[in-house]
């Protein structure tokens, strides 16, 4: 089974509104199977994630605002932290969905995880090459979901810590330390 | 039958399903996801499985009865059924689907007909057993008892 790739490629989200404690992760799950949708939704809820579930890649694109051919921008204000998609779906596959997401400016940084019941190495390679964060074999385990969540929370926490550090640096620039010391002497 | 006896019956019955290979550990995963806030999770997922499977088996029968069998239609159905049976832990149904798919690949119509019968047999078996399991659970709950936790050591 593929290991979780720690998100080295992920850029720290530059979200200035993030000065409180991190919000629950919002996961968009895509699967044409009714049974699997119910299952993944439960796995994610149990892992304290906010979940949106759709039954096709087309609906996923609609949700993200990427369904209009002319613009590959998407809904800029929509906060999605992770997309988990089945590979084999009628119509558009999870692989094609992955490509569309990576082409969009609003969502290319969102990690996309592919799920499949088939352990086909060339398929896995192709998905990872196209920028998938991870490839999970179905049935997905609760431990897989928790591992994903934990690695994403680390990034979110890092982002939170960095934004605090950034704010502190900005405050210092207004009152440089040496001038504060000078004033203190008087 | 008193409550303790009913609970013991349920445990023994559940154990037998695992020992016979009708269910595998994925079913345990489902049970572990059930709690007070979601007390019907397992039966809900299983009900979806029954609905999906009934539809797929019907479609498969129709597809295989055609003059010229379109395997491009047959294989995705079997793949779907393999997926959902795997997701709920219906091991024997899943295994029957794996065999079925290999004959789809060979485009062997006769073998596929046999496979369909095998899949149907395994499906009706697991359906019957799970319905019995849920009835036992309902009886326990109706008597004011708790469903005993799943024993993993066997």
From TrEMBL, chain A:
Gene Ontology annotations of biological process type: cytokinin-activated signaling pathway; phosphorelay signal transduction system; regulation of DNA-templated transcription
Highest taxon of source: Eukaryota
A GO cellular component annotation in the UniProt record: nucleus
Record key words, sorted: Cytokinin signaling pathway, Nucleus, Phosphoprotein, Transcription, Transcription regulation, Two-component regulatory system
Residue runs in coiled coils: none
Positions bearing 4-aspartylphosphate: 86
Localisation: Nucleus
Positions of the Response regulatory domain: 26-153
Family to which this protein belongs: Belongs to the ARR family. Type-A subfamily.
Name this polypeptide is given: Response regulatory domain-containing protein
Organism of provenance: Arabidopsis arenosa (Sand rock-cress)
TrEMBL record, chain B:
Gene3D superfamilies: HPT domain (1.20.120.160)
Location of the protein in the cell: Cytoplasm, Cytosol; Nucleus
Secretion signal, residue range per the UniProt entry: none
Origin superkingdom: Eukaryota
Domain HPt: 38-143
Residues annotated with Phosphohistidine modification: 79
Transmembrane segments: none
Keywords: Acetylation, Cytokinin signaling pathway, Cytoplasm, Nucleus, Phosphoprotein, Two-component regulatory system
Annotated GO biological process: cytokinin-activated signaling pathway; phosphorelay signal transduction system
InterPro entries reported for this sequence: AHP1-5/YPD1, HPT_dom_sf, Sig_transdc_His_kin_Hpt_dom
GO MF: histidine phosphotransfer kinase activity; protein histidine kinase binding
Nucleus listed as a keyword: yes
CC per GO annotation: cytosol; nucleus
Function: Functions as a two-component phosphorelay mediators between cytokinin sensor histidine kinases and response regulators (B-type ARRs). Plays an important role in propagating cytokinin signal transduction.
Domain notes: Histidine-containing phosphotransfer domain (HPt) contains an active histidine that mediates the phosphotransfer.
Name used for this protein in its record: Histidine-containing phosphotransfer protein
UniProt organism field: Arabidopsis arenosa
Lineage: Eukaryota, Viridiplantae, Streptophyta, Embryophyta, Tracheophyta
